[in-house]
Amino acid sequence: MPDDAQTPHAEHRFATRMSHAGRAGTRAHGFVNPPVHRGSTVLHPDCESRRTSAKDRFNRVMTYGTAGGPTHYALEDVICEIEGATRCVLVGTGLAAVTVPLMAYLKAGDHCLMPDSVYGPARNIAGGLLAGYGIETTFYDPTIGEAEVAALMRPNTKVVYTESPGSHTFEIQDIPAIARAAHAGGAKVLMDNTWGIHNFMPFEKGVDVSIQALTKYVGGHSDVLLGSITTVTEEDYLTVRTAASQMGHFAAPDDCWLALRGARTMPVRLKHQEKSGLAVARWFESRPEVQRVLHPGLPSHPQHALFARDFAGSCSLFGVVLQPRYMEADIFRFIDSLELFGIGASWGGFESLALPTTGFITRTATSPDLGGYAVRIHIGLEDVADLTADLERGLATLPR
Ligand SMILES: *Cc1c(COP(=O)(O)O)cnc(C)c1O
Asked: Disulfide: which of 140, 184, 277, 390 matches 340 by Cβ 3.0-4.6 Å?
């Protein structure tokens, strides 16, 4: 296999492409994986080539460390394969992948629409920095359709932000309908696609700019923070890339290398975790202590039909709403008693997590009341029988 013949072909399936993407031209001394290229200064052969190369710094001409290097290019290619994108901007965290495109497309006097179920830190920048710069945000019910979004559009609405399913509450959004209304009003559609990853193809559904916390399933081992912003038009790429560059955003090559390693096994992990997640979600549904399970892949989910239409599958993050008779102290005792579930925020790793979410849910356009105390569950790579046995022991600590 020649070194430059490793670019995947379009007809290859996802797992094949994840094994081969980003490897063309990267082989050093015959080794399978590329080395990590660390660097700040890039030396130029002469002054004239330094002058002319600067204009191509967003186009894979190595001019300075922040313009990126071979380790970035390899990961960018892999991320584009995951989402069906053409260009990718890598940044140091998933949160930076949220804030950079917001700052790129919004200016003083503009208006932004954000779903009420948005990731908390996205709400924070809307009410913080963006508000301070004279940008107004309206929060909308995440389940509304084309007509309702159209009614919320103003002449100065420049961004319609989306995230599906919503953080903590897992509402599925009708992205194609929202995108039609946004585009008719001249706004860009940004989407946080961290939950959907490869199971939701954003650009086929009308999204202009897709956001991923690579920290989650791409990294996959709870050892790296990283974010990606992907686009399909050159114009959108340059808008996002220019903003990231002006603000000095950067992704460390060592972290990119870890994400690259994670991406190689992600298709297998994701499939396995999807199956285990659904099994545990169904187990929760069968328990009398549980009022409802917030998992879009279950037929009981209110937007399950929309999920089935737009998603090829699910990941292993979902919510569980317990019966209203339990108090916070009961829920804390239940979670504290679990042996295999860590109490932590980030997800997509190999290990299972359980997190109380009531009290962390802010809603201003819709009701935050889920009718009972909510727990967010992430299912890792452990054996499902061990996980449900642990959960069964934990639920037994709840008052009768
Ligand atoms: C975790 C997360 C982020 C942010 O990722 P970090 O790398 O932790 O900054 C953004 N969006 C969603 C939906 C997330 O779950």
From this structure: 390
> What would the two tokens of residue 127 be?
């009410």
> Does the reported pTM lie above 0.90?
yes
pLDDT single digits (tens) 340-365 = 999 999 999 999 999 999 888 999 99
| Domain containing residue 388: CATH number | 3.90.1150.10
Taking the CA atoms of residue 392, residue 395, residue 397 and residue 400 in that order, the dihedral angle to the nearest 10 degrees is -120
The CA distance from 169 to 117, in Å, is 7
Using alpha carbons, select from 145, 112, 117, 140 the residue that is nearest to residue 127: 112
Question: Is it the case that residue 2 has pLDDT exceeding 60?
Answer: no
Number of independent structural domains in the chain: 1
Residue 327 burial (CB count, 10 A): 12
Which pLDDT band, with edges at 50, 70 and 90, does 88 fall under?
very high
DSSP assigned state of 303: T
Residue 194 burial (C-beta neighbours within 10 Å; 0-12, 13-18, 19+): buried
Measured in degrees and rounded to the nearest 5, phi and psi for residue 189 equal -105, 115
DSSP 4: G
Q: Is residue 283 part of a domain?
A: yes
Residue 216 lies in a domain: no
Range of the domain at 365: 266-395
95 lines ligand 1 (CB under 6 A): yes
In a domain, residue 87? The reply is no
Q: Which of 213, 175, 204 is nearest to 303 (CA)?
A: 175
Q: How far is the CA of 191 from the centre of ligand 1 (A)?
A: 12
Extended beta strands in 105-213, E state: 111-115, 136-140, 157-163, 188-192, 209-213
| Closest residue by CA, ligand 1 atom 5 | 94
Q: Is the pLDDT of residue 281 over 90?
A: yes
The stretch 75-82 carries a mean pLDDT of 97
Is the beta carbon of 115 within 6 A of some atom in ligand 1?
no
- Do residues 301 and 287 lie in contact, with contact meaning Cβ atoms separated by under 8 Å? no
* Residue 301 lies inside a defined structural domain of this protein: yes
Q: pLDDT grade, residue 4 (50/70/90)?
A: low
Tell me if 346 CB under 6 Å of ligand 1: yes
Would you mind telling me the total number of residues written for the chain in this entry? 400
Return all residues near 224 (Cβ < 8 A) that are at least 6 apart. Answer: 214, 215, 255, 258, 259, 262
Residue 135 has pLDDT above 90, yes or no: yes
